Amino acid sequence: MDDIQEQKTADIENIGKFVFASSWTDDVVESIPMWKMYTDPRCGVRIKLRKNPFLKHGTRGSDFEKVLGATLEDEKSRTTVMDTFLDLTAMLEGGYVSSQGWSGDILTKIEYTNDLDKLEPSVGSCENGKNRIDLGLLGKYKNTHWRFQNEWRYIMDFVPMNFSSNPQQIARYFSQTVLQMFTGIAEPPFRYYDLDIDPKYFEEMEITCSPQMSAGNRTILETLVERYNPNATILESELLGKI
């Protein structure tokens, strides 16, 4: 993130690396600061998509049986389909877990504040001898200096998890992982994660060209759109010829 303060908490160093975010804005009006800060003026674009455009993954309990090597006794649990943002069988096989994986909405409006307890929160606690980390406190607040961004974020946390053992061992593994997160030993399961966009929403994409886009890069953009998303709309910047 461009805001250095976002990596800070009051108690656990670098814990933000387990929180994954995709940043967007809800500002309909084009922003000169955003064009200047986040694009090359000769080739930058602004992409518009509907909220939560992600493809849902249907997973049955019987799919879990194949991965975990266990049998679900309840027939309803075996056949019921769960629609989730994450491919749950891939999650089990990949050795990670996300508390937002079952969510129907992972979009959060950023709150701009000068409250240090929100900007650099305490995320760790110990209850009844068990360590806990509240990753949900991260990624939702920014200093008021960034208010011009009008930012929204898709936020998910990912924690390594070993599902290839019995339930008692899984619980112990999770406790060990949390302890390692406290001490800075644990690492996230990957550096980035791609969510699949539903094809019908992908086709609704609107692409606004940078107000200073070169003719050559405009041709490249048109070629890419024709090849990968021919139903997308390409728009001229309202600032064309003004900056």
Report on this structure.
The chain is an alpha+beta fold. 27% of the residues lie in helices and 22% in strands. It has a three-stranded antiparallel β-sheet, with no helix packed on it. The protein has a three-stranded mixed β-sheet with strand order 2-13-14, with no helix packed on it. Strands 3-4 form a two-stranded antiparallel sheet. α2 runs parallel beside α4. The longest helix has 17 residues. It is globular.
What does the secondary structure layout of this molecule look like, with pairings?
Blueprint (H helix, E strand, L loop, with lengths): L18 E7 L6 H7 L6 E4 L8 E4 H8 L6 H5 L1 E4 L3 H7 L1 E2 L9 E3 L1 E3 L2 H4 L4 E4 L2 E4 L7 E3 L7 E7 L1 E2 L6 H17 L15 H4 L3 E4 L5 H14 L4 E3 L8
Parallel strand pairs: 7-10, 13-14
Antiparallel strand pairs: 1-11, 2-13, 3-4, 5-12, 6-11, 8-9
